[in-house]
Specification:
It is a single chain. The protein has about 230 residues and is α/β, with parallel strands linked by helices. It has one domain: Nucleoside phosphorylase domain (Rossmann fold). Helix content is about 40%, strand content about 25%. It has a five-stranded mixed β-barrel, surrounded by four helices. β6, α4 and β7 form a beta-alpha-beta unit. α1 runs parallel beside α7 and α2 packs parallel to α5. The radius of gyration is 16 Å and the shape is globular. The relative contact order is 0.23.
Length: about 230
């Protein structure tokens, strides 16, 4: 049995993990939204908790290219940071190969990609195209600091995410609702939602649909022998 720390940004993204039964001991860590929150939670969990055999980062991400559509499940080969000067971080090829083999056996398609972590939400096509210039195919807001914290103590990391919003989807400008730590301020987020009700509703529906696609993949991979 392996002890696996599973990092998710929110309770919504972690719900399906809690339902998984298998040979591994799964410890769910809610990182919160944004790189600052993710770094704080990852450092606390990995430096002061019992050292895991592996770390798996799960949840939603945004597509940066036309070839990465909504509902596509992706595994990171490496993770970049939108913050200048941060080096590229490699994910564990050995562990990822094991999980990818489990997905193939279950006939669940998954694509290898380079991901990038940003402190801002990429809400428009123009913002996504700018991030894509880094060579990344998808974007999220938490992976990079979690991978870095795991790398510092020698724990292998795997990233399995699902694309919830494609390059062409316009999102409500939730950047106006981010607090200093990079998470959402509830009151500000409500004002943004009320100002863009259709975009907000479509975003919530897309997020729920995407997690529905990811759940079976997590059930297969997190129950695999690592």
């Amino acid at each position: 049995m392996s002890r696996i720390y599973v990092f998710a940004a929110s309770d919504m993204e972690a719900q399906c993990v809690r339902k998984i039964a298998g040979p591994n001991e799964l410890v769910v860590v809610i990182s919160g939204m944004g790189p600052l929150n993710a770094r704080s939670k990852a450092e606390a969990a990995l430096r002061f908790g019992e050292k895991p055999d592996a770390v798996v980062v799960v949840g939603l991400c945004g597509g940066l290219t036309q070839s990465i559509g909504e509902g596509r499940i992706v595994a990171y080969t490496e993770c970049l940071s939108s913050k200048p000067g941060n080096p590229s971080l490699r994910c564990s090829q050995t562990v990822t190969d094991t999980l990818m083999s489990a997905l193939m056996a279950a006939k669940i398609p998954c694509e290898w990609v380079v991901g990038i972590t940003s402190a801002r939400i990429a809400t428009t096509r123009e913002e996504r195209l700018l991030l894509a210039k880094s060579g990344a195919a998808v974007v999220d807001m938490e992976t990079y600091p979690i991978v870095r914290a795991a790398e510092e103590i020698g724990v292998p990391v795997v990233v399995l995410r699902v694309v919830s919003d494609s390059i062409d989807r316009e999102l409500p400008d939730l950047n106006r609702a981010l607090n200093e730590a990079g998470g959402l301020d509830g009151r500000k987020a409500l004002r943004v939602a009320l100002g863009s009700p259709i975009k907000t509703l479509k975003l919530l529906v897309a997020n729920k649909r995407a997690m529905g696609r990811l759940a079976p993949a997590l059930g297969v991979t997190l129950a695999a022998k690592i």
